[in-house]
Design goal:
Strand order of the largest sheet: 3-4-6-7-8-9-10-11
Strand content: 5-15%
Number of domains: 2
CATH topology of the largest domain: TIM Barrel
Order of helices and strands: EEEHEEHHEHEHHEHEHEHEHHHHHH
CATH superfamily of the largest domain: Aldolase class I
Distance between the termini: 41 Å
Number of strands: 11
Radius of gyration: 20 Å
CATH class of the largest domain: Alpha Beta
CATH architecture of the largest domain: Alpha-Beta Barrel
Length: about 325
């Protein structure tokens, strides 16, 4: 699979852009543990075009994170073009346009999945960005707005005509948000269209090796994007690759490896965000990092309540000692 001149190999696995999740510390871990491509958190074009500090900070990444796409969202041509030009100065591997985020505060401002109700504007925005920048441009969207409006099959062809280099499709409508079951049928229909020549990336309900293989087999997608299944579980990419290569489930990471991964995640987050923000953001990951550990609730409560970096690392050491004895 290629995005522009970037060769990503067969069926690359991609870390989805997720607000307050896919920051540099987490992206680095996912790359180390098998993700072939990562994306920044989605960045508001209006804020970036005005060079707001919080938006500019989201552009930062390290060479170890490549290949990397910077994702933008918005609903005005001028802001999207300005933001794309600013993003391009940071030399990403490509720029991704978000036309799929279902979050109410984004949609109410006309961004993300709101563009599924204004296809002409979506195409205008996409074409303008493609023409303005030199790096490849990709798009991420959904099947449609709701069960009565799922235009993705026709829309994919029209997006391809704007000059994009790849299209990611989440197998849900905006109305579904993240509920229910992803419908991969239309993703497969897009991929099988004779006029579609750009890579099609599938997203939605891929959580492990068997589900990844099922998506590839049933839809023919060129790549897979993984979002929520990676939270507190960055080794999901490694596990999926192992299954696709061998047909067998990968061994779960040992207690020692988990502790090492969580510790590095905490330390890198402290460096990146500063203590207060890092400690708060890490709380989203603990339950998943130690999923299935018996009698873990007391440790989890202590991790969630701790406000000191040294205390967090000490709790992790205690977890390691306790569970090594019962492993």
């Amino acid at each position: 699979m290629h995005i522009g001149k970037l060769n990503l190999g067969f069926h690359p696995l991609m870390l989805a852009p997720m607000e307050d999740i896919s920051d540099p510390p987490f992206r680095q871990l996912c790359r180390e543990l098998g993700a072939d491509v990562v994306f920044t958190e989605f960045i508001a074009s209006e804020g970036l075009s005005r060079e707001v500090d919080s938006s500019l900070k989201k552009l930062d990444f390290t060479e170890a994170e490549r290949p990397l796409g910077i994702q933008l969202f918005g609903n005005t041509v001028s802001a999207m073009v300005d933001a794309a030009l600013i993003a391009q100065r940071h030399n990403p591997d490509f720029i991704d346009l978000n036309f799929g985020c279902p979050v109410r505060k984004i949609v109410n401002k006309g961004g993300g999945a709101a563009l599924l109700r204004d296809i002409p504007l979506m195409l205008q925005l996409t074409r303008a960005v493609v023409q303005a920048v030199e790096c490849p441009v990709t798009v991420k969207t959904r099947l449609g707005w709701d069960e009565h409006s799922r235009p993705i099959v026709e829309l994919a062809s029209r997006l391809q005509e704007t000059g994009i280099s790849a299209l990611t499709i989440h197998g849900r409508t905006r109305a579904q948000a993240y509920s229910g079951t992803a419908d991969w049928t239309l993703i497969g229909e897009v991929k099988q269209q004779a006029d579609i020549t750009i890579p099609i990336i599938g997203n939605g309900d891929v959580t492990d090796g068997p589900s990844a293989k099922k998506m590839i087999d049933t839809t023919g997608v060129d790549g897979i994007m993984i979002g929520r299944a990676s939270i507190g579980n960055p080794w999901v990419f490694r596990e999926i690759k192992f299954f696709l290569e061998t047909g067998h489930a990968a061994p779960l990471p040992s207690v020692c490896e988990r502790i090492d991964i969580v510790s590095r995640h905490i330390i890198n987050s402290l460096t990146w965000h500063g203590n207060k923000t890092a400690i708060f953001e890490m709380r989203k990951h603990y339950g998943r990092y130690f999923k299935g550990f018996p009698d873990f609730k007391p440790f989890k409560m202590r991790l969630m309540q701790s406000t000191e970096p040294e205390e967090l690392l000490d709790i992790l050491n205690q977890i390691a000692m306790y569970y090594r004895e019962v492993e």
